[in-house]
Records
---
Amino acid sequence: MFRRRARDDREFRQAQREALALRQIHAQEPWPSDTIQTKAPAADNGETVVPDFPPADLRAPSRHDVEGVMMRWMPPLVIDGEVHACPQCGTYRDWIVFNMNDDSVWLRCTAGHQVMEPRLDAAWFNRNCGPVDHWHPTLEDGLRHLGH
Ligand SMILES: [Zn+2]
């Protein structure tokens, strides 16, 4: 009984040593991320260096960083059960719909007539717009991108 336990202990300790050796081998292998970390300046004041990831130019601005969001609305726009037509030119399809930072919703027809639509709100816009896929420095750039 005593001998058997001693042999079990020996085998256990041997297995521990092998596992430790294996871990040390893996610890010496560099990870792809290690090369980035070693290039970063070491923090000698005890602060943790947070890698700048993703880079600033890959980060999408939040909706508070922009004046508004816009989408193209090709089919007739039905508001309160009625097809909405531009009050100035009568066109009723192919709108640009804006959701501004103040949560107001604006409609712009193909002729460029632009009017605030109080019956639509940010919740309506968010239900109907897809994910934001482009950021435009100017309104004109956004309109061009959306085909207006
Ligand atoms: Zn119009």
Note: Confidence is low (pLDDT under 50) at residues 32-43.
---
Amino acid sequence: MFTIDNPTLTKAPLLTNSPLLTGEAPCPKCGKMHEIRYGKQKINGEWKEGYTLAFVKCGDNTYLVGVNNRYIGKRKLPVQPTIDEVCEDNIWQYRQNKPSRIVDDMEKYGIPRETGYKILLGRGVCKWLNVRRKLIKLKNAWKEDVNKTIEDIKIAKKGDNPIYLGRLRGRLETLQSCRKQIRELCKSDRWAMPDYDERGRREVDKLWGQDYFSASKEVI
Ligand SMILES: [Zn+2]
């Protein structure tokens, strides 16, 4: 059971409306930033997302990081570096994956918001961030399928239909293998550049003065 006294809690940093942190919190397990998820609570008889309990997901585990919209994790909240400071070592500190955030950044460098959205939509960035989101949801849906199949196998073991049982076992193996592959893709490195963009790979290496991408012929 988790306890925290009120004076400590009121001194803890806010999870939302904090200049340090909006949308992500350091993970108690791995220390990286993960998206904050809020638990559902009953408000006027209806289940709604509330700020009472906040969690982060790390792999398949969930960790409590907030109570009453206050950050209770032991790890220090990192200060968000500016976009100019991005490098391989600090990239995990950046909030990612929302087109509006990219448009915010571009606006700071003089690109009007309208142009920013046109670039991201026209060049496929919005589409693929959307696919990314759906991939994550698919991975979670497959987890449920895996659990359901494990339950079905338990029941089938008590029955007398070995062909059906064998089919279920095959299904489980396939599901687990597919899920593992999709999970690895979702967890892959942030410091990445598509293999088909040779110009991008060369230019990034030149800018950072490193051999991150251009030497590698890896096909992703
Ligand atoms: Zn983690």
Note: The first strand starts at residue 24 and ends at 26.
